[in-house]
């Protein structure tokens, strides 16, 4: 695998991760110049008075009732939303085509990563991470949302999916995830790196091209903070790692284990919340993706593809002619990694793959109990999910 860096017209970084020749050997290089006449992303912007004003990044406000930071990224209201096929900003450039505002200047790629054009988190050069207070009230702290948001494209084919890319390309995606986790973790102020994929209109994707995202947060996310609190309490009570104990308990039970390999175990958690949910964890205690060995990465490429392909067989519908057809599963694939600094001995790498689809044509809506109170109600049982997953895994 070969990594090549470049800059887009507005200054955003782009990185090609190539696994094919002549690019791996350096015999050729992907296009690095971006011909679009874009203004610099940090250039002054016109204000309400028509005069240029210094660029300011998104801000985040502290919710004193929950202890959570909430980024306010109003510019995302204008981001690209379900464009037609001939205006796909994630597709390779097409020489001579009318559309000229794609984010990838090369006419082909294997895997490519670039900074998001509409980021929720953004580090602005020269802007200090200073805490202020909204309306002068100490109850309402405000900080710059000084993180980083990247897009990772898994394939140049807009009709592909991560499940269809094959072992070699999946291995390259894993290398890209690990590389970006390492580099984002080294940025000043970054506390946590999150690699994830949203797929499907039901999930809320705005681009159907096979892609994921990588966030570098300047704070610990609520999910991670909760897991860390639970893990520390468990270590204090038992002296052991909570996520290690969860994996070993699932293996002892076996009831919800759906797949195993030399280095990985896939299981439906005992208190699964979603209509479809499976976790994938390494057998060895590993804090994050960069810590995986080559053998673990090779094994991961295979078992991850198996889980994704099985997910696309989880639900079937009967057509008017009586034929049954599998439904591509709308899902979120979330890599939980240990934070950059805090709690690395307590948290453990694992994947959470889940879907809001509870039956063909029926979604799991987060209604009053879930949305208002955060009190979850499951529409099925983890054992039923595991039985169906084992069935489609074959």
From TrEMBL:
Transmembrane segments: none annotated. Keywords: Carbohydrate metabolism, Galactose metabolism, Metal-binding, Nucleotidyltransferase, Transferase, Zinc. SUPFAM superfamilies: HIT-like. GO terms for molecular function: nucleotidyltransferase activity. It catalyses: alpha-D-galactose 1-phosphate + UDP-alpha-D-glucose = alpha-D-glucose 1-phosphate + UDP-alpha-D-galactose. The keyword Zinc applies. It comes from the Bacteria. Pathway: Carbohydrate metabolism; galactose metabolism. Its EC number is 2.7.7.12. Its cofactor is Zn(2+). The keyword Nucleotide-binding does not apply. Residues 59-220 form the Galactose-1-phosphate uridyl transferase N-terminal domain. Residues 234-351 form the Galactose-1-phosphate uridyl transferase C-terminal domain. Residues 22-58 are annotated as: Disordered. Belongs to the galactose-1-phosphate uridylyltransferase type 1 family. This is Galactose-1-phosphate uridylyltransferase. It comes from Georgenia wutianyii. The gene is galT.
């Amino acid at each position: 695998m070969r990594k090549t860096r470049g800059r887009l017209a507005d200054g955003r970084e782009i990185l090609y991760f190539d696994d094919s020749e002549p690019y791996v050997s350096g015999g050729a290089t992907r296009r690095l110049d971006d011909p679009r006449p874009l203004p610099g992303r940090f250039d002054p912007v016109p204000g309400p008075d028509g005069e240029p004003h210094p660029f300011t990044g998104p801000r985040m406000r502290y919710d004193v009732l929950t202890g959570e930071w909430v980024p306010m990224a109003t510019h995302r209201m204008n981001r690209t939303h379900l464009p037609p096929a001939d205006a796909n900003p994630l597709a390779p450039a097409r020489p001579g085509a009318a559309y000229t505002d794609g984010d990838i200047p090369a006419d082909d790629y294997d895997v490519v990563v670039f900074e998001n054009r509409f980021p929720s988190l953004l580090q602005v050069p020269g802007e200090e991470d200073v805490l202020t207070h909204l309306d002068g009230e100490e109850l309402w702290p405000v900080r710059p949302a000084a993180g980083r948001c990247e897009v990772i494209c898994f394939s140049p084919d807009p009709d592909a999916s991560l499940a269809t890319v094959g072992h070699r390309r999946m291995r390259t995606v894993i290398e890209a995830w690990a590389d970006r986790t390492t580099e984002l973790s080294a940025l000043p102020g970054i506390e946590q790196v999150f690699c994830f994929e949203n797929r499907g209109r039901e999930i809320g994707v705005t681009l159907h091209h096979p892609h994921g995202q990588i966030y570098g947060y300047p704070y610990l996310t609520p999910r991670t903070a909760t897991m860390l609190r639970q893990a520390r309490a468990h270590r204090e009570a038992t002296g052991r790692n909570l996520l290690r104990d969860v994996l070993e308990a699932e293996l002892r039970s076996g009831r919800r284990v759906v797949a195993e390999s030399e280095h990985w175990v896939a299981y439906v958690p005992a208190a699964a919340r979603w209509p479809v949910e499976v976790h994938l964890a390494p057998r060895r205690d590993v804090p994050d993706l960069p810590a995986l060995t080559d053998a673990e990465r090779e094994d991961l490429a295979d078992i991850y593809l198996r889980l994704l392909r099985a997910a696309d067989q989880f639900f079937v519908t009967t057509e008017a002619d009586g034929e049954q057809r599998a439904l591509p599963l709308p899902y979120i694939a979330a890599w939980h990694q240990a934070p950059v600094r805090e709690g690395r001995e307590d948290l453990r790498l694992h994947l959470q793959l889940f879907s809001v689809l509870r039956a063909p044509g029926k979604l799991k809506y987060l209604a009053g109990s879930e949305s208002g109170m955060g009190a979850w109600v499951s529409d099925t049982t983890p054992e039923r999910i595991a039985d169906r997953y084992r069935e489609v895994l074959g």
